[in-house]
Amino acid sequence: MAQDIFGKALLDYQSGNYSEDIITYSSLDEEDHIPLPYLFRDYKKMPSLEQKALKLCKGSVLDIGCGAGSHSLYLQKKGISVTALDHSPGAIETCKQRGVQHTALSGILDFRDQKFDTLLMLMNGIGIVGKLNNIDSLFTHLKSLLRPNGQIILDSSDIIYMYDEDEDGGYWIPDNQKYYGEVVFEMEYKGEKSGPLPWLYIDFNTLQRAANANNLSCELVSSGEHYDYLARLSVIK
């Protein structure tokens, strides 16, 4: 997204120019909206899975895909050392304006030479991997950012419910689809539209198998109310 639609929307809201939300289009359903005020929510308005994730954070934290910086701000106020990372210039500028002290304008795969005790990937942050067959390279890179005894905390969703169910309890998934959690998004804001953005939703069992294959333990911390879950990963010694 060379035009940084997401960042432009965040900066508009931060600057008091809020007039409309981001429209999303996905390969699975019709258009939806991302309400901008929700991206600026405080701890009390966060879903319980996010609240639990923030309580699990320890040591130095890298908030991957930080967006408007709501999670980073909460951790910072708790006295935790946190770096807010995002590839969106507008998101990082928003974080700075909101008072986040440490930021990094970068995609996660280009971010190196620092190590953290906690890597935080909320709001389905692992979706940035795009396709399931990219997850090994992502895990290899994430492990390089972990200090000894470090952890990766992430949430995601099993979107099998979005497919039609047959009489036997199975689901109709197109034959040409490699993994049903692979989705393509486009975003639109104030008449500007992004290019296609591959995004991954990964069910817990698939996440656990991928983690184990990369020498990572994978613990189910909590399950949400609608096919979502919170997981904690760490390097197997």
Keywords:
single chain, 237 residues, alpha/beta, Rossmann fold, seven-stranded mixed sheet, five-stranded antiparallel sheet, 7 helices, globular, methyltransferase activity, transferase, SAM-dependent_MTases_sf, Class I SAM-dependent methyltransferase
Topology, element by element:
Layout: H1 5-14, E1 22-26, E2 32-34, H2 36-39, H3 48-56, E3 61-64, H4 70-77, E4 82-86, H5 89-98, E5 103-105, E6 116-121, H6 135-144, E7 146-157, E8 182-189, E9 192-193, E10 197-200, H7 204-213, E11 216-223, E12 228-235
Parallel strand pairs: 3-4, 3-6, 4-5, 6-7
Antiparallel strand pairs: 1-2, 1-8, 7-12, 8-9, 8-10, 11-12
- Structural class, please? alpha/beta
Question: Largest beta sheet, briefly?
Answer: 7 strands, mixed
The assigned CATH architecture is 3-Layer(aba) Sandwich
**Helix content, binned percent:** 25-40%
GO biological process, one term: methylation
Domain Methyltransferase: 61-150
Pfam family, one: Methyltransf_25
Protein name: Class I SAM-dependent methyltransferase
Describe it.
- The protein has a single domain, classed as Vaccinia Virus protein VP39 (Rossmann fold, 3-Layer(aba) Sandwich).
- Helix content is 26%, strand content 29%.
- It is built from seven helices and twelve strands.
- The strands form two sheets. The protein has a seven-stranded mixed beta sheet, with helices on both faces.
- Helix 1 packs parallel to helix 5.
- The N and C termini lie far apart (39 Å).
Summary, kept brief:
This is Class I SAM-dependent methyltransferase. With 237 residues, the chain is an alpha/beta fold.
